[in-house]
Write a structure and sequence with these properties.
The complex is a heterodimer of chains A (176) and B (87). With 176 residues, chain A is mostly helical. In chain A, 91% of the residues lie in helices and 0% in strands. The radius of gyration of chain A is 34 Å and the shape is rod-shaped. Classes of the chains: A mainly alpha (176), B mainly alpha (87).
């Protein structure tokens, strides 16, 4: 009788020992699943924000490009007309070429910046865990370059192109 | 009698609310319109005449307006800050 009781006790102990870890493991995997799901949701939200930011930047870039093309074309037309009238436009010609290079630099730097943002948006949640912040740092650095390009273009207009046009204007007669 | 008075008060209240909503809507629309004045020449070709000084003055005005219609701040750091990303 005692033997049977002892045996039953051992069997019960073995059962408890095997069931408890199994239950704990099940609980743990359930928690991991929920965590993964939350991570996925959070990443999808972040991806949507990045795509929205890309759209906003693209809109700004298109406005800038449009204006740059508009002013470049007007200055070029002014230059040609003044040249046809026999004025010395060599200084403006040279500065316009420098300005055009600035427009090109702006376009190239902007493309590199947007490519970086698109690279971030295309990450999987697992990849994002490892490289999101380092890529974001790079994107921020590239954005600073784009902003500086836009500032350089603006300053070059104000300090150089405008002064060149003003200089040629002063050579024109007051009225015809 | 009492019910009539309540109904009239409710009608007046509703009408006031509708008027308030319309005035708020109108105020927000006019604010939006006045927010950022677009350059008159944006998107169009700038006219270039070189007959006399006033022609070039006019050209410079158009160029200034076009250049002022865009800002380097369109690419400010703030747009990629943690708060902008919702982090």
């Amino acid at each position: 009788m005692r033997k049977a009781l002892l045996l039953a006790g051992v069997v019960a102990l073995l059962l408890v020992c095997s069931v408890v870890p199994a239950l704990a493991q099940e609980n743990q995997s359930g928690e991991e699943g929920r965590l993964r799901e939350r991570l996925q949701e959070r990443w999808e939200f972040l991806q949507q924000r990045i795509e929205l930011i890309i759209a906003r930047f693209n809109n700004n870039q298109q406005r800038h490009q449009k204006v740059y093309e508009q002013v470049r074309s007007a200055v070029s037309e002014f230059l040609e007309k003044m040249k046809a009238k026999g004025y010395d436009v060599s200084k403006l010609e040279q500065d316009l070429a420098t300005w055009e290079q600035m427009f090109e630099k702006f376009a190239q730097d902007y493309a590199a910046f947007i490519q970086k943002l698109e690279e971030i948006a295309a990450l999987s949640p697992e990849q994002a865990q490892g490289s999101f912040y380092s890529l974001l740092r790079e994107a921020r650095q590239l954005l600073r370059v784009v902003r500086q390009d836009a500032m350089d273009i603006r300053l070059f207009y104000q300090q150089t192109i405008r002064a060149d046009i003003q200089e040629l204007r002063n050579q024109l007669p007051e009225s015809v | 009698m009492e019910r009539k008075r309540i109904r009239r008060a409710m009608t007046v209240g509703m009408a006031s609310l509708v008027l308030l909503a319309f005035s708020l809507l109108a105020a927000s629309c006019s604010k939006e319109e006045g927010g950022k004045e677009p350059a008159p020449s944006t998107g169009e070709e700038i006219q270039v005449e070189v007959g006399k000084r006033s022609d070039v003055d006019s050209l410079l005005r158009d160029l200034d307006q076009a250049m002022d219609s865009v800002s380097p701040e369109d690419f400010s750091d703030a747009q990629l800050e943690d708060s902008a990303l919702g982090l």
